[in-house]
Amino acid sequence: MGEVLIRAVDGISIGVRHGEFVALLGASGSGKSSLLNLIAGLDRPSSGKVIVQGHDLGKLSRMDLAKYRLHTVGMVFQSFNLIPTMTLLENVELPLRFAEAARGERKKLAQQALNRVGLSARLRHRPTELSGGEQQRAALARAVINQPQILLADEPTGNLDSRTGTEIMNLIREFNQNLGMTVLMVTHERSLAERYAKRMISLADGKLTSDEPNGTTTGGAGER
Amino acid sequence: MKFYDAAELAGRNLRESILRNSLTTVGVSVGVASLVAMLSLGIGLQQLANRRLEKSGLFDTVVVTSRRDLRGFNREQEENGPAPADSPSLDEAKRQQIEKLPHVREAYPDIRFVSELRYDDQPHIASVAGIPSSAKSNEAFDGMQGAFFSADSAPEAILQKSFAAELLGNKPRPDDEVNAAILAPSLIRKKLVLHYAERTSSQSGDAQAKGGAAYSVVSREQALTIVGISETGPDAMRGQARARVFIPLRLAESLHVMQPSDLRDTTNTAGAQTYTTIEVRVDSPANVQPVEDSIKKMGFNTFSITDATKSLRRFFAVLDLFLGIFGSLALAVASIGIVNTLVMAILERRREIGIMKAIGASDADVRGLFFAEAGTMGIFGGVLGVALGWALGRLINFGTNVYLRRQHFPAEQIWFVPWWLVSGAIVFAVVVSLLSGLYPAARAARLDPVQALRYE
User: Looking at the domain assignment, is residue A79 inside a domain?
Assistant: First the structure.
C-alpha cells in the first residue's frame, strides 16, 4: 500500500534443480505467492536476487522480462485466469501469438495441447461454459504451449473438488516426469504436497521455516 | 505480436462491448461527416464560382489587337514593343499561328457590325455578332429559349430578348420585365432578313500595283431563321456576347461584311484582309499569362483579366480553412470519446491485461492491442463518416436547389466530394483516433500484472 514496504518475502535463499517438483507450503499471507510472482518475473525484488538459468531477473529490462515469461516459465493460477471472451482454442493460442508463431502452426499446436489435456471436444467453447476442472486443464495447456522449462502453479487445485484436483495434479506430474519440466507449486494443503512433490519448502511470515525432501527421490540433474 | 494478430484481437475485443464501441465509432463518424460536409460545400462553392467565371468568358480569354491599329489597351504596351509600322498585321495566317500555341483552345476573329434587319417587312437596326459554337456554354445563353445554332455556318439567328420584343412591336420595357419564354413561340422558326454591305474584291490594277487592297461594296441580303431567344440583357452580357443578334461565326465570316478595318486595308501594303481583334480562348485561367506572353512576343497588343481569379482563389482558401476548422471541432469531441472508451476498457479489462502480461505479453503487445482498437474505430468511423458527410452534403444541395427553384433560379451543384477528400478524411480519422489511443495504450502497457491479477 503506497509507500510502505511490506516484507512479503524476507531473506529466503533456496536453490531449485532442473526437473525438480517443489511444493511451497504455508498459510495464507505467508509470502508463498509473492515468492512465486518473483520467480515468474511478474514482480521484482526490492533487494536480493532471483537467478534463473544464469539470468538475474531483477536486472532484465521490461521487454526481456516479458520474453522470459513467454518462453521460460508457464503459469497456472487458482482462479484459472482464462480470458472469458475467448474460446479455449484462442486462449491456448494466445501465448503463441505473442511469440509470433506462424498462423497455421499455431492452431495445430494449440489443438495438440488441448488434446493432451483431454479437451479435444471443447475447442470452441468459452471458459464460462466449462467446469472448473476443464478450465484448469485448458489453463495448463496454455501454460505449456511455448514449451517452458519451468511450470509455476499457484494453488492449482484451490478452486476444485478433490477428484478434479487429482486429475489436475496428475497432469502436472506428467509434465514434470515426461517432459522434464521443473515444477514449483504453491499450496496450503500439506497432503497434496506430500502426494506429488519431491521437495517441500515451508514459509511463514515471509521467512523460510523448513526445506525438506519428500520421500526417497529428489528430482533430476542439473544445477541452476 | 504481429500487426495482423493485433488487428484481429482488437476486432474481437471491439465486438465484445459492441454497443459502447459502436457509439464511440458513431461519434467519430459524426465528426468526420461534419468535416466532409463542410469541406465538400466549400469545394462545391469554389467550383461553382469557377464554373461561373469560366462561363463568363472573362477569365480565360485574351483579346489580341494589332499595334498598327494604335488601339492598345494600356500605355505600357504602347511604349514597349515594335513601332506600329513595323509590327505585324492581324490576318488569317497570324490567327492560325496563335491557335497553334500551347494551351490555346481556339482563336477567332471578332466580327460584329451594325446593320438593318427586316422582320415582317419592318426594318430594325441592331448590332450583329458572329459567335463560335463554343460560345454555347457562355452564361449569356444560360436558360435560353429554343436551341443553339444547328451548325457553325447555318443561316440561323439567336435574338436577345429585348430585341425580340421590339420585333413583335412591344413597347420598350426594362430587360428584367421581358419574358423570353412568352416571346419564343411567336418568333422561333420565323424568317429574318439581314441587309448588309458586302466587300467584294475587285480587279483594280492600279491599287494592286501600289500594294494595297481594292474592293467594291455591294448591298446584299441574307435570310436567317430565328432559332433561339437569349434570356440575358445586352448590358449583362460580356465580351463576345455583347450584341442583339447572334449569327454563327462561319456564316458571319462568309458574308464578308464591310468592316471599319477594311478601309485601312486599302492603304495596307501587306494587301491581305486583316482583323480588328481576335479573341483567344485559353484552356484554363491559370494559363492565360503564358499565352498572353507568347502572343506579345509575336508583336501584338493583348488584354486579359487575371488578377480577379487570384484574389478569388485566396478567398476560397480562407473559407475552406474556416469550414475545415469548424468541421474538425466535432472530430475533436469524438476523439475525447475514444479516450474515454479506451480508458473505460482498460478499467474493465484490467484482469485480462494482467493475464496477457503473465503469459508473456510485452508492453509493446498490450500497447499495440489498444492502438489497434483505437485505429479500428478510426477506420470504421472514417468510412461511415465519409458516407454520412456525403449524404449530408447531398441533402444540403438538394434543399438549396428546392429553394432556388422556388425562387425561379436554375439548380446549381454547390457540393462536391473529390477523391482526395474521401481518402484524406479517412486517414485523418485514423490519425486522430491513434493520437487519442496514445494515452490509454501507454496506460494499459504500464499496468502492473501482479496488481491487475490480485483477486479479492
Answer: yes
Sheet with B277-282: strands ordered across: B104-109, B277-282, B61-66, B300-303
Please state the pTM of the whole predicted model. 0.68
Candidates A83, A89, A155: best to mutate against B (most CBs of B within 10 A) is A83
Q: What is the ipTM of this complex?
A: 0.90
Contacts of B355 in chain A (CB under 8 A): 81-83
Residue type, B447: L
Instruction: Answer whether B12 touches A (CB < 8 Å).
Output: yes
Tens of pLDDT along A4-47? 666 777 788 888 999 999 999 988 888 888 899 999 999 888 88
Selected residues 341-360 of chain B with any CB under 8 Å from a CB in chain A: 351-352, 355-360
The domain tally of chain A equals: 1
Cβ–Cβ of B355/A81 closer than 8 Å?
Answer: yes
Give a yes or no: residue A8 inside a domain: no
* Rounded-to-integer distance, Cα B9 and Cα B15, Å: 10
Q: Which of residues 107-126 of A touch B (CB under 8 A)?
A: none
Task: Using alpha carbons, select from B385, B445, B365, B353 the residue that is nearest to residue B7.
Answer: B365
- Give every CB contact of residue A217 below 8 A, 6+ residues apart in sequence: A198
Q: How many CB pairs under 8 A join A and B?
A: 71
Q: Is A205 helix (H, G, I), strand (E, B) or coil?
A: coil
**CA-CA distance, B72 to B383, in Å (whole number)?**
57
B12 with A95: Cβ contact below 8 A: no
Contact B8, B362 (CB under 8 A): no
Could you tell me the residue range of the domain that residue A176 belongs to?
A: 21-46+55-213
CATH value at residue A115? 3.40.50.300
Query: What are the chain B neighbours of A102 within 8 Å (beta carbons)?
Result: none
Instruction: Please write the tens of the pLDDT for every residue from B192-214.
Output: 999 988 887 765 555 455 555 66
Which residues contact residue A16 at a Cβ distance below 8 angstroms, ignoring those fewer than 6 apart?
Answer: A22, A182, A184, A224
Q: How close is the nearest chain B Cα to the Cα of A140, in Å?
A: 11
Q: Could you say which residues from 413 to 452 on chain B have a Cβ atom under 8 Å away from some Cβ of chain A?
A: 449-450
Residue A71: its chain B contacts at CB < 8 A? Answer: 360
The predicted model gives B37-47 an average pLDDT of 87
Domains, chain B, in order of start with CATH, read 3-54+311-453 (no CATH), 60-110+275-304 (3.30.70), 116-273 (no CATH)
